[in-house]
Design goal:
heterodimer, A: 424 residues, alpha+beta, six-stranded mixed sheet, five-stranded mixed sheet, 14 helices, B: 429 residues, seven-stranded mixed sheet, 15 helices, 15 strands, 20% strand, globular
Chain lengths: 424, 429
């Protein structure tokens, strides 16, 4: 499962030749530092790029091209990892052998992507004003809509409060307050800078070769000849928590959302990363985990109660939906599980089940083109070369003591509770 | 064992129906690490009135199929079968929908053990008064979680507005009140009726050997006794042609109003392959009209009446058929007016042939891309099999669909008497 690596200008190209899938999967990662000044303009870039290219100025023409490419999928997301903001563009197109296409669909897809990325529609030397205004509105609506999904909203708020003084408090899609100040020319200036500054990695998984992909890329990716490509900024190391912050928000909701933010002294690039994976698995990633069993199954307090490990940032979050009146009870049970892990109270079964589930998840990566690309990209981002096999080996070697050691350096930082408007 | 070849999509299925009626399908995917298996019963939230053989018909509380699904994971020894799956490295789950309940796992090791665990736990119900009571608190939280979800509320609101009697308008999980009426005896009645192997389908897809899997399941089933089941009768009150209400509004805090409209088809007579073809034609027709590459979509987006959340779908079965169209909008009434006007115009002009060809290509491509996912194959195959049709015919039906077909669908489907609207807005302070 080795990617062949090449490049075109400052775009790194990774190709995995395989005929196991019916499609070509294409992912482009573009990473720049996550900063207050650039987060919103950067997030807005893909929205405007997808509206029109020099070749297909009208959005409907661009969309028609996707239809003609047998319903090729095209999408983008903006995410944050550690101190980096990533614009990710994905394309998914059927392999030619299933349809009677006149041209190589891979070539057409890469042409499409190259055009969207580097050959946007320009009017008077900048983006079309109407597109910029429309997409500012779309982005704004998107940010305003976070509040509609209470689970997502609570998760956002918890991280926002916990990382109050860190770039990570920023939503990867930017800040609503910035949007009115963006103009067509300020966005275009940011776009030109972004093409220079970003670290670009393109992944292709499918029945092709590195040579073929590089050739197609060189046809349509009009990248600048020289680029500065800012290196990924490392995340700050573990800082001790002086006191636990508690925040309560009130909205007209039916269910309380309890979220905890914790600092964990293990990052993706650390030697103890796999041990931390196991720690999180025992704590709350599975239906056999301490949180699910104790909060949901034993006490019927919740439908969901789980933990998530963000290894690129070095934090852990716990989330649960509960009756408002069960806040204290749920919090106590959760704290008990955290404490038990510090005491090394872990059964053989808990450990074995967690290892089996983690190993399964690792092996399943190999069956999904996007996951294969994503896993390899972690290597580019973190600088650590892990293979699925090596991670599985390390998982097998983790002991209860290892998990306890991780627990010793986990610190509760923030408790966030979203509840109703009633007076208590 | 039957061998079913589908060369146009490069898949081969292996099928056997056992003596006890259980249907097994295996889809080998050479080179895949994982195996994904689903064990499904043709029993869902709409099956709330039934009898097996000569029994007296029974009407059950809302949400019982879903409740049963939750309780299935409980084992006689007090253990949770999730623990067993976890030990064997399998990620297990389950879901209940309108017409089926599905238990599944995904694993890369101990496939045979996991498959036996899957079959055995579903065939070993263990409901007690105590474990039934305990689940009520959990499901109440699940219901509350969905009640906070505005997208779910507006979607369901449309079902409630369109259907007067049909249980599709009843929430799959029931209500907090209805689940408190559920007891273990009712659960056993439902279980014994619908979980008979003759009402179930096992689908296994992944890096497996078909013959081996089928033999394994065969010998597992041979060791079990299943009393023969009388024919299952499912009772539905006759659904009037008319919709229930034209406009349903719910208040929830939302950043923008949500608006969905839909058309209920009064004539619902198709079955099997005919129904599948009907579904394919309808989906194609809707995508031509409302898809993101349509001029209409672009025009509404430019007016900022809709955003990326605007979409459409078509749901049909032997008993119901309706469309859903909508998304977030600053002005629900303006959106409704725009869609209405557009439909009136399109009904006059008919569908453009160039657009028809382009969207047809798109749907064909989407279908082929879907086949990349073992999970999608298992899910879709089961869903269609329970309606006596074959998912692998979809490609042919798209290819055979003509402009005349979609224009006919257009005329039949959009009857304004049959239209309802569901809206979610923030409470006015």
């Amino acid at each position: 499962m080795e990617f062949q690596v090449g490049s075109f200008k400052h775009l790194n190209i990774h190709v995995l030749p395989t005929n196991r899938f019916k499609t070509y999967s294409i992912t482009l990662f573009a990473g720049t530092p996550l900063t207050e000044e650039t987060v919103t303009t950067t997030a807005l870039i893909p929205y405007v790029l997808r509206r029109g290219t020099a070749r297909y100025p009208e959005s409907i023409q661009l969309r028609e091209q996707l239809d003609i490419m047998y319903g090729a999928g095209f999408g983008f997301h903006t995410v944050k990892r550690g101190n980096t903001q990533f614009v990710q563009m994905k394309m998914d197109v059927i392999n030619d052998r299933f349809v009677n296409s006149e041209h190589s669909l891979l070539e057409e897809a890469l042409n499409y992507l190259g055009d969207v990325l580097t050959n946007p529609l320009l009017e008077n030397g900048s983006f079309r004003e109407a597109y910029v205004e429309a997409e500012k509105s779309t982005l704004q609506k998107q940010l305003e809509a976070i509040i509609n999904d209470k689970i997502q909203y609570a998760a956002e708020r918890c991280v926002q409060e916990m990382c109050e003084n860190e770039p990570y408090r920023l939503n990867a899609s930017g800040k609503i307050q910035d949007i009115p100040h963006i103009t067509g020319s300020s966005l275009f200036a940011r776009y030109k800078q972004w093409l220079q500054d970003a670290k670009f990695d393109l992944y292709v998984v499918g029945d092709t070769t590195l040579e073929q992909v590089v050739q197609y890329v060189s046809q349509s990716f009009q990248l600048p000849d020289t680029a500065t490509s800012i290196p990924y900024a490392p995340v700050e190391r573990h800082q001790h928590v002086h006191s636990v912050k508690t925040v309560v928000d009130r909205l007209d909701v039916n269910q309380g959302k309890l979220n905890l933010g914790l600092r964990i002294n293990a990052h993706y690039s650390d030697d103890n990363y796999v041990k931390a994976l196991v720690y999180n698995g025992v704590l709350g990633a599975y239906p056999h985990s301490k949180l699910f069993v104790n909060v949901r199954e034993k006490e019927s307090l919740a439908y969901y109660c789980a933990s998530r490990y963000d290894a690129h940032k070095g934090i852990l979050t716990i989330q649960s939906g509960i009756e408002f009146s069960n806040y204290e009870k749920a919090l106590n049970i959760i704290n008990e599980q955290l404490e038990n892990l510090k005491q090394g109270i872990i059964s053989d079964e808990e450990l074995e089940q967690t290892k089996a589930m983690l190993s399964n998840a690792m092996r399943e990566i190999l069956d999904n083109a996007n996951d294969i690309a994503g896993f390899d990209f972690n290597k580019q981002f973190s600088g650590v070369d892990r293979t699925v096999e090596s991670v599985i080996e390390q998982i097998a070697a983790v002991t209860k003591q290892d998990v306890q050691q991780i627990a010793a350096e986990v610190e509760l930082d923030t408790i966030y509770f979203l509840r109703d408007l009633q007076e208590v | 064992m039957d061998v079913l070849n589908y060369p146009h999509v490069e898949e081969t299925l292996y099928r056997e129906v056992l003596d006890n009626g259980l249907e097994i399908i295996v889809l080998p995917k050479p080179g895949f690490q994982k195996t994904y298996a689903t064990f499904a019963t043709k029993y869902g939230s709409i099956d709330n009135h039934f009898a097996a053989g000569d029994e007296t018909p029974l009407k059950v509380p809302d949400g019982i199929a879903h409740f049963l699904e939750h309780k299935m994971f409980e084992e006689p020894d007090g253990q949770d079968v999730f623990a067993t799956f976890s030990k064997q490295g399998a990620a297990a789950n389950a879901y209940t929908s309108f017409d089926r309940t599905v238990y599944l796992f995904s694993a890369t090791e101990q496939i045979e053990e996991n498959l036996m665990t899957l079959i055995d736990f579903v065939q070993r119900p263990h409901f007690t008064e105590q474990n039934v009571e305990k689940e009520k608190g959990i499901i109440a939280q699940e219901i509350n979680m969905y009640n906070d979800n505005a997208d779910w509320r507006v979607y369901y609101g449309l079902f409630e507005a369109l259907y007067q009697k049909h249980p599709i308008a009843v929430d799959i999980a029931g209500t907090v009140e209805s689940i408190y009426q559920i007891d273990k005896d009712l659960l056993y009645r439902c279980y014994n009726t619908f979980y008979h192997p003759s009402n179930m389908l096992l689908f296994v897809v992944g890096g497996v050997d078909a013959e081996q899997i089928i033999e394994l399941v065969k010998s597992n089933q041979a060791q079990k006794e299943f009393a023969p089941l009388g024919e299952i009768q499912r009772f539905f009150d006759e659904e009037p042609k008319e919709i229930r209400e034209q406009r349903k509004i719910k208040q929830l805090p939302v950043s923008l109003p949500k608006c969905m409209l839909g058309f209920k088809e009064a004539e619902v007579t198709k079955q099997g392959e005919e129904l599948l073809r009907h579904e394919v034609e309808s989906k194609l027709m809707l995508d031509i009209l409302f898809g993101s590459s349509s001029p209409f979509y672009q025009s509404l987006y430019d007016q900022q009446l809709i955003f990326d959340s605007f979409g459409h779908e078509y749901n049909c079965s032997e008993q119901y058929a309706f469309s859903v169209i909508g998304g977030d909008t600053p002005d629900p009434d303006a959106l409704i007016a725009a869609i209405t006007k557009y439909l009136e115009e399109t009904l006059q002009s008919g569908i453009d042939s160039e657009r028809f060809e382009a969207v047809k290509r798109k749907k064909i491509g989407n279908y082929l891309r879907m086949l990349n996912s073992p999970e999608s194959i298992a899910t879709q195959f089961t869903r269609y099999r329970f309606r006596d049709c074959d998912m692998f015919n979809v490609l042919n039906y798209y290819q055979e669909c003509t402009l005349e077909n979609v224009n006919a669908r257009l005329k039949e489907h959009f009857d304004f008497e049959q239209m309802a609207v569901s809206i979610v807005v923030s409470p006015t302070s």
